[in-house]
Specification:
It is built from 2 helices and 13 strands; from the N terminus they run E-H-E-E-H-E-E-E-E-E-E-E-E-E-E. The strands form 3 sheets. A 7-stranded antiparallel sheet has the order 1-9-6-11-4-3-2. Strands 5-10-7-8 form a 4-stranded antiparallel sheet, with no helix packed on it. The radius of gyration is 18 Å and the shape is globular. The N and C termini lie far apart (50 Å). It binds fe (ii) ion. Fe (ii) ion binds next to loops.
């Protein structure tokens, strides 16, 4: 009998219906009123300015996200740490727009709350990596069976308004061309208050 063990897996958390309909509606209204900052890679994608949780709908959403961050942080760092959301922003992706491949600098955990139901063409896609300056060998063809050890990308399952996803900020991700209606989401970055490696500690704010 053989056994296969997935070494050093990457956590990815989904919390369905974390935000209720009223809060989702308030954030959608905020996005439609203030998402005027154009994305430099896609004309059909706009964002609001990043803000600290502050008050109102952002603060209410942050309070609901906070316990999930502690839970996710436990997986990443093995300790129940205090976490802070540094900034949040809203994204409005119209039909024909896309979000280019990126990750989130100066952050440990990033997340998205879907405020509309993304069209099947525009689920968030996570990528294993784009390669560096080394030659790359691969075996992707019609005979290939995709699995967790050889896939180079992973598509998030269908989402509903109010659903949260959390992922390590270093993970590359993108949203392919949206072939459906307006896609609205809330995104954020979070840091633990302090990391301590046997007395060699560093704090974040
Ligand atoms: Fe992102």
């Amino acid at each position: 009998m053989s056994q296969v063990i997935g070494l050093f897996p990457t956590p990815f958390m989904r919390s369905e219906k974390l935000l209720g309909a009223g809060l989702v509606a308030a954030l959608v209204a905020e996005a439609e009123a203030f998402a005027s900052r154009g994305n430099h890679r896609s004309a059909a994608l706009t964002h609001t300015e990043p803000v600290a949780p502050g008050s109102g709908a952002f603060a209410e959403a942050s309070a609901l996200i906070a316990p999930r961050l502690v839970e996710f942080g436990m997986l990443l760092f093995g300790e129940s740490l205090p976490w802070a959301i540094k900034e949040l922003w809203l994204n409005v992706l119209e039909n024909g727009g896309h979000q280019a491949v990126h990750n989130h600098a100066n952050s440990f955990v990033s997340g998205v709350v879907y405020l509309s139901r993304p069209h099947e063409s525009a689920h968030t896609v996570f990528l294993k990596g784009l390669g560096g300056r080394d030659f790359v060998f691969g075996n992707s063809n019609a005979r290939t069976t995709q699995g967790p050890f050889n896939a180079d990308k992973w598509i998030t399952p269908p989402a509903e308004p109010g659903d949260l996803v959390l992922f390590p900020s270093y993970l590359l991700h993108e949203v392919p061309v949206n072939q459906g209606g307006r896609r609205i989401s809330l995104a954020f970055n979070a840091v633990p208050q302090r990391l301590d490696s046997w007395g060699y500690a560093t704090s974040f704010s």
